């Protein structure tokens, strides 16, 4: 009996894209930031027009949602225009902000339909939170803006990254729930960027990278997620998303990432098909 060869797998375009639009950030997060972001970093070689073309292409090929991330995405000079363009393309939008400073016009933007917020929070104690962020006053500022987001009924998810032993992550989670945040999850620091304690490898990933998601760096490089930035698969600026996602390099990279059981550490909850913060498709970025 002749057995027909197995048909090649049909490439699947990720439904979710993380767009790392800047490396600039008011915080330094000296032991944590996966992107090595900071006050002196720039916005990369992707122009505002490049990002807009990318989002238009993404919507056409089947992407459903984008997450603006950095660095601090609200510091990009065309941040508002980029969010409005994403919405005009029919994409859902999430903004992953440190919520250190929020302009009045940005609150109006966050209140638009199909827009949600995500942020990171490290402790209910200011000294611990600021040990992670590297900036005095950041705890009070972020906490106040979390309260503001809840009061404005803006969909908000918060991720807590455990950076050092004894960190009050459980107390921080309880505080956030008491403030009215509905979605709070805890993850561990990954060996990427400033959190690197060894050469980053696929074993450092949660196992869901390239599974319905991808990330685009400030130079257009496409990776399985922002934490999988050491696995470049092509360039959206020079080649376009179609070429990348239907290319062999993307397929090979996706296949090389070890998949983990639903109960694997650092990628919860399992029942919502995503990583921290829950209900967003990306792993907890570390600010």
What distinguishing features does this structure have?
single chain; 287 residues; alpha/beta; TIM Barrel; 8-stranded mixed sheet; 9 helices; 8 strands; 29% helix; disordered N terminus; iron; rSAM
Description of the molecule:
It comes from Streptomyces sp. R11. Pfam families: Radical_SAM. GO terms for molecular function: catalytic activity; iron-sulfur cluster binding; metal ion binding. With 287 residues, the chain is of the alpha/beta class. It has a domain at 16-119 and 193-272: TIM Barrel. 29% of the residues lie in helices and 14% in strands. The chain contains nine helices and eight strands. It has helices at residues 48-61, 79-88, 104-110, 126-133, 138-151, 169-179, 236-239, 241-245, 248-256; strands at residues 16-20, 65-69, 92-96, 115-120, 156-162, 183-188, 213-216, 222-223. An eight-stranded mixed sheet has the order 6-5-4-3-2-1-7-8, covered by helices on one side. β1 (16-20), α1 and β2 (65-69) form a beta-alpha-beta unit. α1 runs parallel beside α2 (79-88). The chain is globular and about 45 Å long. Residues 1-10, 191-199 and 263-283 have low confidence and may be disordered.
